[in-house]
Write a structure and sequence with these properties.
In the C-terminal section; belongs to the class-I pyridoxal-phosphate-dependent aminotransferase family. This protein has 479 residues and is of the alpha/beta class. The protein contains 17 helices and 17 strands. Helix 3 crosses helix 4, helix 7 crosses helix 14 and helix 8 packs across helix 9.
């Protein structure tokens, strides 16, 4: 990494620019050999470099940072790149300017009674993207190109032709070419799941799913008077033999799967297992709902079930996990036009349409490439946060916006979540995802809800300390 900056008493430089300061020049030299070129904007690489150095202690509070022109010369970049990096590093609270004395590593900010949310699965702020500027620019372009009255009135349920075409284009990397006539634009994935249950099951019907799954599904199942049956899994996901036995005994007609970077376990079902599941489902005429919000995050992800067998699968993907939950936009691809119409009729019982303004913004971003640019930034930030979590917690680095952490024997999931809450941390225990008797003892750690990366790092360190403490050895304090 980088060398320790000069500390201790210093004489004030005669110029604001400390390029000629010998201390700064000497201290800067290790940066040149340690900072390797990589992918992404150079200024973001430099900020990440500083952040890692602060995190691992190579840089300490009060260390002097080399002057901007010195770093520009050493790293072979222009001064504008360094200035952008310094601005971003100041925004993250990594460095601070002290006038003519130069720039220094900041002291940690005191977090007073601030709760850090590691329980909510949302995408992290994208690297190198000014979201405020994108919103201002996007909404301005919408108003220039669209009639404001049209953006504030009722629209066609399920999206218009242009909306469905944009959605098909967004899904093409996962599914290949998609007929827009089979696409529905929905006001979030939860509404789409509920509508699927209404459209393709009846009260008291059994819905099949894995024992650990997204909590929104069992909630909808219970509210709509259906039953949920958990199917056993192994290291590759749902077991085909267990699925076949359940199909025979329950006569179920709907199977829910989240096969890529599954929520909560972050496991990905291999293609061979996907094909086995499809064969069993076809044999018993079971319709599959594939909830696939994380496919884009997974390196070398297997093809979705809907690509392998489009006539069997209802494919659901939401922008809430890739771009922003504030867009409230999800896409559903149905096997055929008839099932598409049946779904839309059911959706009307929950919502007439997606919100026109945010939906129009999402479609514009997809069409002009902004959505892809935002996602690239989200994925880069998620990758860095996964690296931070692995380094801090001693786990394997994964992909996506959450990780599944198996607990030591002296911690139970509910107890750990309660103890974390006392420490000002929110984590999701395995009990929040279990259907039937619990066999897991783990927590899901979500990495995106905390906007500030340094705050996330501090929270992960606190969690690591808590995980390492033996609860049985702790004395209880009564006040």
């Amino acid at each position: 990494m980088c060398g320790r900056m000069t500390q201790g008493p210093m004489t004030q430089p005669t110029r604001n620019d400390a390029d000629s300061n010998p201390d700064t020049d000497t201290a800067a030299s290790p940066w040149a050999s340690a900072f390797a070129r990589g992918s992404g904007p150079r200024y973001v690489q430099l900020v990440d470099f500083i952040e890692r150095a602060v995190a691992d202690g190579t840089l300490a509070p009060g260390d002097r940072v080399p002057a901007q022109r010195v770093l520009a010369n050493l790293l072979g970049v222009d001064l504008t790149t360094i200035t952008r990096a310094f601005n971003e590093a100041r925004r993250r609270g990594l460095i601070e300017a002290r006038g003519p004395l130069g720039t220094f590593v900041s002291a940690p900010r005191a977090e007073l009674a601030q709760r850090v949310d590691l329980s909510m699965n949302i995408p992290p702020p994208p690297v190198g993207i000014d979201t405020n500027a994108l919103l201002r620019e996007g909404l301005s372009r919408l108003l220039l190109r669209s009639d404001a009255d049209l953006l504030m009135t009722y629209h066609v349920g399920g999206g218009g032709a242009a909306d469905c075409t944009a959605a098909a284009n967004w899904l093409a990397p996962a599914l290949g070419p998609v007929d827009p006539a089979r696409v529905a634009v929905c006001p979030g994935a939860q509404a789409a799941l509920a509508a699927l249950l209404v459209a393709f099951t009846s009260p008291s019907d059994t819905i099949l799913a894995e024992p650990l799954l997204y909590p929104g599904l069992p909630h909808a199942v219970a509210q709509l008077g259906r039953r949920l049956e958990a199917i056993d899994t192994d290291a590759d996901g749902m077991r085909p033999d267990a699925l076949e036995a359940a199909c025979r005994s329950h006569g179920a007609r709907l199977l829910y799967l989240n096969p890529t970077l599954q929520n909560p376990t972050a496991a990905t079902m291999p293609e061979s297992r996907r094909r086995e599941i499809l064969r069993v489902a076809a044999r018993y005429d079971v319709r599959i709902v594939e909830d696939d919000p994380y496919w884009r995050f997974a390196p070398d992800a297997p093809p979705p079930l809907a690509r392998l067998a489009p006539s069997q699968v209802c494919y659901l993907s939401t922008l809430s996990k890739t771009l922003s939950p504030g867009l409230r936009t999800a896409f559903l691809v149905m096997p055929d036009v008839a099932s598409h119409a049946r779904f839309l009729a059911a959706l009307r019982t929950f919502s007439l349409m997606a919100a026109p303004l945010t939906n129009a913004l999402a479609m514009q971003w997809i069409a002009d490439g902004t959505a892809a640019r935002i996602f690239d930034g989200v994925r880069a930030e998620a990758h860095e946060r996964q690296r931070m979590a692995a380094q801090t917690l001693g786990s394997s680095a994964g992909a996506g916006i959450h990780l599944w952490y198996a607990l030591p024997s002296y911690w139970q999931a509910r107890d750990l979540a309660a103890a974390a809450n006392i420490e000002g941390l929110a984590v999701a225990p395995s009990t929040a995802f279990e259907q039937g008797p619990g066999t897991a003892n783990a927590i899901r750690i979500s990495l995106g809800a905390t906007a500030d990366r340094s705050q996330l790092q501090a929270a992960l360190r606190r969690l690591s300390t808590l995980l390492a403490s033996n609860r049985s050895a702790q004395s209880q304090v009564i006040v």
